[in-house]
Amino acid sequence: MVAVAGILLAAGAGRRYGMPKALVTYDGGLLVEHGLATLRDGGAEPLIVVLGAQHDEVLARADLAGANVVVNADWDTGMGSSLRTGLGALSESAADAAAILLVDTPGITPAAVRRIIERGAPAALVAATYGGELGHPVLLGRDHWPGVIQAAIGDRGARPYLRAHRDLVAFVPCDDVASGEDLDTPPEAG
Q1: Helical ranges in 14-158 per DSSP H
Q2: Alpha helix segments (H runs only) across the chain
Q3: What is the CA radius of gyration of the chain?
Q4: Is the pTM of this model over 0.90?
Q5: Chain segment 73-83, per-residue pLDDT in tens
């Protein structure tokens, strides 16, 4: 059986949002808790949560039980360093692949995660699509981790690697089970 880990990237400061998105209240909890539950309920194991900005407050307020929490000391350099940190935390694990989820995509459901991890394998590259557009979660087979780590620079995560290896990527429509929008700014007060 293929082992697919889950990595939740939750390290950013949320500059446009006005606060770290990990600390945003959503559906009775915090976005970081919601993202972790989405990966867990989708069948990913082990679970990694990458924190950065205000990590002490996130750790004090969030219930991250069952996850290996790692702090990205270079979080302010962009998402690339968080992806490298998350994959690095799995280097000694038995995971064959990793499902990657961003903290600011609460419309992603466990059903979408399951759809992606069903295709998990060491050589797999899988991406959810919404309206034909690339979205999350993405699945990175272990064979690709070194290349992804090398390509993940600044605010670029796995997208440059996926584009460079487009012929290997399995695109999986998830429109019927999830919404791929991200939260860039707080909702306007009505």
Answers
A1: 31-41, 55-61, 79-89, 110-117, 145-151
A2: 31-41, 55-61, 79-89, 110-117, 145-151, 159-164
A3: 15
A4: yes
A5: 999 999 999 99
